[in-house]
Design brief:
The chain is α+β, with helices and mostly antiparallel strands. The protein has helices spanning 2-13, 17-30, 61-82, 85-92, 95-98, 100-115, 159-171, 175-178, 186-201, 219-232, 243-249, 282-292, 302-307, 310-316, 322-325, 329-336, 349-360, 380-390; strands spanning 34-36, 47-49, 52-53, 57-59, 120-132, 140-147, 207-211, 238-241, 250-252, 258-260, 263-270, 297-299, 342-344, 365-369, 399-403, 410-412, 414-415, 427-442, 445-460, 474-476, 478-480. The longest helix is centred in the N-terminal third of the chain and has 22 residues, at 61-82. It binds adenosine-5'-diphosphate (ADP) and magnesium ion. Magnesium ion (MG) binds next to strand 6.
Amino acid sequence: MDTVSKKLSQFLEQRSADQVVLDAVDYAICNGIVMRTRLKPTSSDVVQHAPFTLLPSPVPKNLYEQAISVQKDFNFLMHAISQDPEFMKSAFSTIIHSDDFTRRLFEIYETALLEKPKKTAMAIIRSDYMFNKTDESEPSLKQIEVNMIASSFGGIGTEKTRSLHGYTLRHAGFEDVATSLPQNKALQNLAQSIVNAWDLYGDNSAVVVFVITEIENNIFDQRALEFRICEIQPDIVVKRYTLTQISELGDHDDDGNMVINDQKVGFVYYRAGYSPDHYHSEKEWDARLLLDTSTAINCPCVAHQLVGAKKMQQILSQPNMVERFIKDRNSVKRIRDTFVGFYGLEMGSAGDESIQKVLQHPENYVLKPQLEGGGNNLYNDEMVAKLKEVGEDDRRCSYIVMEKIRPMTVQSIIVRSEAGYDIPTPVEGVSELGIYGYIIVKGDQILHNSIAGHLLRTKSSHHNDGGVASGVAVLDSPMLY
Ligand code: ADP
Ligand code: MG
């Protein structure tokens, strides 16, 4: 760690540092680490590079390895939960009364379960962690969340960002540090996993559909995956549709196959559908139901999407919950070691006590609704105000409280388009490591359970919430020590 910091300070003292920034920006643009701009989010005629750290950030090697070693356990666990309708029902019973979005998803889950119980499905799973450091002790790996739908940045934030950092390090004269960047084949592995699932569908004429939103700022992250899929298997045609378009152009044929625009669909990959904002009317819900009850392989199916709910994290943290699904004690321990404390806010005395505890020390907690995509969590005063607003009635059931992680800090130089490229100044940053995995399943059978690669995102430590797409975090890669 010392040598890494020393090298960073040396680097900053170099008069050529600003030139390294300009070179890194060109490298990013040239290699497609790009996004659409805020001013023209629906068009690719003007693009900018995605924000990134100039240098990779130090990550304790043992924690990186720990995150890798628990990924298949989480992959397995997520699927096992989705196969237990009784557990699913009781887990979501309190939320579906107060959270309309979760209730609609749950209804589709129940219909799909009835109509297609043994369907083939795939999930791309990304488990995110921070490196908790409370005192003088060594940092520990603590899970932020498990993403079951639309995990982004596998396209531009993995292999490409690693090679950007390799270039920058070599260019700045730190060839030896470049060797401490772990391999990252996430883009290739995720593309290959989709090709494998499409193969399983077994119809060469069937297309792959990416479900997208109307405005896709982060389109190149999706395109990178699409183009890699087509490089691996040129027979695959990828089509991009919104849920609205699918409801207008799609239907089941007589055999229950999904057909959109006269093309049979073999595989559906969702980069939309995780937010209430993506369902403007009944049409989009109809489309979701059609997709989930067709023969097409969904990634994720609605059951897998639901188990990624933050409520599920809180339930799993309770005694004997992980143990219900996993008998191997080592696997349970690997999973539980990454948990922090959670509280449910069900009506009744236990929920009341949780609220009191949080109100006494709001600085130690985060309040989370059942939403994805960044910017939804509440901290400090906002959390207190929300708890006071919803605390008396069953609206509180749709939130969970999570203990706040105190991540170790790193020195980061953030390179952001539109900010100008002055002499780089380091800021105090905190990093979040995501490990990508995927499963391909048929009913309760798991056909594939694999690790695909990793993602590191770093944000300035004064921000509470994260997210690259929401403009807070930036792309990074781990430099192991
Ligand atoms: P989302 O589904 O919106 O991505 P997350 O649970 O990942 O929701 O939270 C968003 C961000 O908030 C994370 O990337 C992290 O920076 C921060 N965050 C979430 N939970 C915690 C926590 N328990 N302690 C500290 N920071 C957290
Ligand atoms: Mg997240």
